[in-house]
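Running this now, will post back.
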Amino acid sequence: MDAPRRHGAQQRREPGTGRERWLGVAILLLGLLAYVPGVVNDLPYIVEADEAYFFGRHAARIAATGDLNPGWYGHPASTVIYPASCLYRVWYAAGHGGSLFGPAPGLLTLFGEQTWVFLLLGRLVSAAYAVGAVWLVYLLGRRLFHRRVGLLAAALLVPVPALIRLSQLLRNDSATVFFTALALLAIVRAMESPTLRRQAAAGLACGLAISTKYYLGILAITLLLANGVMLWRGRRDRAHLQETLAGVAVAMACVVLGFVASTPFFVLDLQTAWSDIVREMRPTHLGADGLSPVQNLWWYNSVALPSVWGWGRYVLSLVGIGWIAWRGTTATRLLLVFTALFLIGISGSPLHWERWIFPTLPVFTIGAAVAIDQGVRWLRQQRGLSPRTGGYLFALFALAISIAPLAETVPVLVRQVRPSTMVQTRHWLDENVATDTIIAREWYTFPADGAPWQLVGGFALGQQSVEHYVEQGATLLITSSGMYNRFYAEPDRYPAQIDFYEELDARATSIYVAAPDRWTGGPTVRVYRITPDGP
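Update: finished.
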């Protein structure tokens, strides 16, 4: 079964054609166009609180003080926080006359005054990871199959709207795709030739992945399984067995080394790290809980993956994955094992998030590319088509499967460079509401940084009664579909919260609505006017 793979390895070392090189460059340019321009989205306003609170402020403090302890280990996101802190320090030194080394208290002052600039720089780190992931998926597909599969897999990864949106925020979601692809590529290389150097590289890649998100520890299990396969193959060769066992030891040691080297204060500040992990493992979160592990697994496969990946590509990926399971090599099947273990692993959490499936995208993109490639090969054999005609068919099928994702991606790119409904609401409030007004608001309504009004409320207005906000003196109540839709999605669990929004709609007067459309992103934001006696 692995003989064709050895032939593929020989082909892989041959220089690529000029056309393939230009196609690779074109795909990377598409990635840059997809991931970079939208980093300005909604700035200078700060809409996504996670960016500043969990990532930006820790990176800024490290850059200003030189103290490498981030003080937060919830993800742990070291592979985002540390590069962002380096970028902050270089920018501060170049633009504000500071030094590259030593304390820089002015940087923290500047972070408080111009947080949006730091978020913009951090978003570039996220976008860089996304572009790098495209290249790594190409390398992985090429190594496991051939250049055509690699190129198509990379091209299919670019128009993924959910990934584009989160790659343009200072978060670690795009980094999870990057380090997953990097680790899988390193593991495949180690399986081809299990030298100590390649084993160490695979271990280090897995350690870096875990420093990005804890749940990527599944990659270390995958590396261990790969070594188990190699041990089984050489079980009768004593010398080979000893070499492989040494490789296993090196690989596992480098997993630990990669993690500790990139997240050293997880060990040095273990009490804080454990506290943050316990907080992240909380069993409830509005809109992301209430399912059993089996229900979570079903939700990921029937809702999250089709939503992120698109039904057309998802079905095609399943076809390709089926072919790999049937006819693939041990290395290609190992990707399926990783995907299965990963989905089962995240399903064990009491929470479920659509973005958690991002690390499976490299495997699903390769699966879709393999399905098209094998389909064209089958047609060639059945119809006796020439290689040139087969190439045209491959390009035609690739274009056909890309039309729908591209049609969906273009509006996303436009929405990312236009003010969202939340920023539109802020502009309307700036122009129409007196500064002595008391406003009750919930999350995802408008950016509150620098707001001149007195703000009350919190996570969700529905957690209190309408009368509660009236008693606080609020004359404007502002709601967001980003919050109330979570309650309406589970009416049996949240009847009191739904009653709040129904009462508000009946009792108060709607004076402004900012609704999303094809070219404008964000939730539906409604501004209500209310008085103690009624509207």
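Confidence is low (pLDDT under 50) at residues 1-15. More later if anyone needs it.
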